[in-house]
Amino acid sequence: MKTKKIIRASFFHSPKYGEIEFQKHAVLLVSDDGIISEIIRKEDENYQQILSQHSQKSNFIDFKDKVLLPGFIDLHIHAPQWPQAGLALDDELSHWLNNFTFPLESKYADINYAREVYTDLVKTLLTNGTTSAMYFGTIHNEATLELARICANLGQRSFVGKVVMDDETMNPDFYRDNSTKEAIENTEKFINDVQKLSKDVPQGIYPVITPRFVPSCTDNALLELGKLAKKYNCYIQSHCSESDWEHDFVLERFGKRDTEVLNQFGLLTDKSIMAHGNFINSEDADIFKKNKSSVCHCPISNSYFANAVLPVNKLKKQGLNICLGTDISGGFSPSLYDNIKHTVMTSRMLNDGVDNRLEASCRGNHDSKVSVFEAFYLATTGGGEALKLPLGIFKEGYICDFQVIDINTPTNKLPNYLDNEEHKHLLQKILYLSTSENIREVWVQGKQILKKD
Ligand code: GUN
Ligand code: FE
Q: Whose Cα sits closest to atom 11 in ligand 1?
């Protein structure tokens, strides 16, 4: 493995839930194929020797006083909904889908419209430090393949799904798969096309089997998608127990909970990432854990459409893997920084309760507070664990994806007036106060893919 780049930088990461590590001016050796082959810390014996050996070379990069964070990993986002981000957020889920979302998604039969929106969205995510993303496309193969191509070209690692919604009774005539057979054939064709495309993409582009959610799919479609997942060992994404309406609808149709239904059809594997999960109970959580499936927390979207707050701490304690998603446009923000903050804030409301007519002692759901470092873990390490890829931390053998933060950017200078600030204070300020202005460079698979001047 040839060493291609030698990077000297300070960095934060969270190898363990709730804990953070800071390294000042460490040296990262990055191989030709974008993998961290060695990290030399300041206190290591050979640190000075490595520095003097490499610091004059053209492949030596010194980030000086800037700080690296792992690239953020957004594992639930609807790319076609970007045009309506921030709109229609006072609606209820099923009405929102039928009256705003499906009419918008139907427009992606037009490949030119898709190209324009998707290019803008992927650039926006990169600008906000998101180096890996798992996308819902639409029912259209061509437009969704175009999304995969755009990610490939712009350098983002992506996981992309053609959406399946074949049930005639649940989906409008103007926007649904023509038949179950066609939905499955198109999904298989999509998997093959993305796998072909991925051959020339160093950072990886992966197909994802994507039943929209149980209510939009026939039993037969769910069964056949489960078979495809097995045949191709593919990633799977869907929505699971998101809201009262959605969860109760599935209970009524099957006499079973979402988790049980998804599991019965072979859709809960170690490569499954299910959005929301707000109403999963402890038996459901055991099924997730046993199958090594992950829940993707979408805190901003949940505040509008979910009727509940995900009990992150309780599920983590039960051993579940949880990652983070923007869920555009159920969530309005393309930034995982915003979703980190919202994870913390909504967990406080869950913890303390919000109904002032109740006594404080019985108002909340205690032990629910999620710290900003725990939320940072969900956006980085938790994402890598959900994907079963070596992503989200700075470690030998891990993929070298990061964002470069400048806390002194003139357009958003972070306050730094206290004496002897601890390193953990710096990370808190970065997570709470920085904007995309502070993200000066983005690197994926050991390569700079974005630089702001
Ligand atoms: N359930 C089914 N489709 C959707 C969607 O597009 N957004 C959200 N938040 N929930 C869904
Ligand atoms: Fe969603």
A: 239
- Ligand 1: which atom is nearest the Cα of residue 216? 2
DSSP string, 281-316: -HHHHHHHHHHT-EEEE-HHHHHHHTSS---HHHHH
Q: What is the DSSP string of 241-263?
A: S-SHHHHHHHHHHHSS-HHHHHH
Residue pLDDT, tens place only, 294-344: 999 999 999 999 999 999 999 999 999 999 999 999 999 999 999 999 999
**Phi-psi map region of 116: left, alpha, beta (phi>0 left; psi -120 to 50 alpha):** alpha
Among 313, 295, 377, residue whose Cα is nearest residue 72:
377
Separation between Cα atoms, residue 346 and residue 332, nearest integer Å: 16
Instruction: Tell which one of 108, 212, 238, 241 to mutate to probe ligand 1, the residue whose CB is within 8 A of the most ligand atoms.
Output: 212
Give yes or no for residue 242 CB within 6 A of ligand 1: yes
Q: Which of 74, 191, 186 is nearest to 135 (CA)?
A: 74
Ligand 1: atom nearest CA of 93 is 10
First and final C-alpha spacing in the chain: 33
User: Could you tell me the distance, in angstroms and rounded to a whole number, from the CA of residue 97 to the centre of ligand 1?
Assistant: 7
How many angstroms is it from 54 CA to the middle of ligand 2? 47
pLDDT, averaged across the chain: 97
CATH numbers and ranges of domains, the chain: 3-70+393-451 (2.30.40.10), 72-387 (3.20.20.140)
